[in-house]
Write a structure and sequence with these properties.
Elements (H helix, E strand, L loop, with lengths): L4 E4 L2 E4 L7 H4 L12 H10 L4 E4 L14 E4 L4 E6 L4 E6 L15
Parallel strand pairs: 3-4
Antiparallel strand pairs: 1-2, 4-5, 5-6
Length: 108
């Protein structure tokens, strides 16, 4: 699970889980429960320059990615990370509103 992430100029809110693979990638030094000034938030967002790559589809991602970046497929609302060891992208976040039914059963 990634958690909720919202990035815009002047605003940074959300949580990153270690299991998402983003905790190390987007090391911003954000402390839970701490309030940040607009200047501090703007500085953190500027530090992400080039680390968030957005494309219409994952097919437009570079053939070889960057392990220090996250990749956003805007057409499918999915977030990926690049793995240097496996030489492939892993989906680490998805638009869960697109899932029709989750009932916890293998039966259809």
């Amino acid at each position: 699970m990634i958690g909720d992430i919202s990035l815009s100029k002047g605003q940074l809110s959300g949580t990153l889980s270690r299991s998402s693979g983003l905790a190390g990638t987007l090391a911003l030094g954000v402390s839970p429960g701490k309030y940040y000034t607009k200047a501090e938030i703007d500085e953190m967002i500027e530090s992400l320059s080039g680390k968030i790559v957005s494309a219409e589809t994952y097919l437009e991602f570079p053939v070889v990615g960057n392990a220090d970046a996250i990749y956003i497929d805007t057409a499918n609302n999915k977030v990926y990370r690049w793995d240097d060891d496996e030489l492939k992208y892993f989906c680490i976040g998805s638009d869960y509103d697109g899932i029709g039914i989750i009932n916890g059963s293998w039966d259809e």
